[in-house]
Structure formats: structure tokens, C-alpha cells
């Protein structure tokens, strides 16, 4: 069975930074991230709310790996300092001995990719998986094209595989405003940003920038 002194789950900004610093200190580190996500899982809105608005490029695993690496320069640094990077690998469980389980040979995590499932021993575990989309119910929320902000960000920035050309964004906080900016920067048309609040909730400078873009 594989074993690592430190396992970091999540290769975003925080997880990658933690892995790099630990490796610099001489710790053997495994950095695990479920991305890239197979199109079959994205179609089920797993792990993010993708809304089924992705193009066929998402089915090209090699291309998606390249795009993901290109949008996260810290992965190159992590590789340089000796971090064991395992992309396209999900963590389906973490286990330690307790009152209900005393037979494990130390702490272990369960891993799986598109080919196999296996266990890995660890001494320390850092969970840096980031946020998930909050799905709210409204008329049409289950139709193709209704998606979460994190799902949209991932398709636009990480995979470059968003097929939507025109967007309406619900929520005028910084998350909604930043989603609008990323959408515009990636060539999508943002028709409107709506909110139940009487005025914009997010950053005023960013609001002014978006208003200047129409």
C-alpha cells in the first residue's frame, strides 16, 4: 500500500501552497485533486453545478489536463520541489482507528480515478477542497443552462469549455460580480445581474467596471 507522510486534498491556491511549503521543508507530499472531471460526471453536476453547458472539449481528458495545468502555475512549482501530484483522482473516504474501527494499520484515505480504486496510508491530512455551489430552487432551476457560480468559473477559467454565450447572473455580491467579469473576459454576454437587495452588494469599483462594459 502506498504511504505518504502528508496528503493534501485539493490543488487550488491554498492546497498547492501548503504542499509546496511542506515539500520545501523536506516532507514527502501527495497532492490530490479530482479535476479534471469526466464529462459523464459533469453531466450529473458532480462535483460542481455545471448545468450541462459544456462543449465536447470536456471529453478530451488529455486536453483538459493541459488546460488545468496552464491555469495553475503553482502546479509547476509543486512539481519542481518534488510534490507527488495526482490529478483526476478523487478522495472517497478518510479513515482512522476509533471505538468502532480498530483494525486499520494507521490512518488511510480511499482514492479512485477513471481506472481503479485504492487505499493510501498517511500521517497528516490537509483538506483544502474549496467551496461547492449552493443550489436554490426556482422555476426552471433544473433546466439545461442553470448553473452554479463555481461550475461556471471552472468551465470558463480552468477548462475553457463553457458553451453558453449569454448569461443572467443571480446575486450581486462579489461572487456574482466576479463571475460576470470572468464571463465577459471569456467572450460571453452578460445580459443582467439580478438581486433581491435594493442595491448592488459587492465591490463598487468592480460594479462600475461592469457597468462600463454594458
Explain what the structure shows.
It is a single chain. The chain is of the alpha/beta class and 214 residues long. It folds into two domains: 3-127, FAD/NAD(P)-binding domain; 164-213. It is built from seven helices and eight strands; from the N terminus they run βαβαααββββαβαβα. A hairpin with a 4-residue loop joins β5 (108-112) and β6. α5 packs parallel to α6 (174-185). It is elongated, with a radius of gyration of 20 Å. The N and C termini lie far apart (56 Å).
Quick recap:
By secondary structure, the protein is of the alpha/beta class.
First-residue to last-residue Cα separation:
56 Å
Cα gyration radius (Å): 20 Å
Strand content: 15-25%
- The ordered H/E elements are EHEHHHEEEEHEHEH
Task: Give average pLDDT, whole number.
Answer: 90
Shape: elongated
- CATH class assignment of the largest domain: Alpha Beta
Question: Topology, please?
Answer:
Elements: E1 2-9, H1 13-24, E2 29-32, H2 39-42, H3 61-70, H4 74-80, E3 84-86, E4 90-95, E5 108-112, E6 117-127, H5 149-158, E7 166-170, H6 174-185, E8 189-194, H7 204-212
Parallel strand pairs: 1-2, 1-6, 2-3, 7-8
Antiparallel strand pairs: 4-5, 5-6
Helix pairs in contact: 1-4, 5-6
How would you describe this structure in keywords?
8 strands, 6-stranded mixed β-sheet, two-stranded parallel ribbon, alpha/beta, 214 residues, elongated, 2 domains, FAD/NAD(P)-binding domain
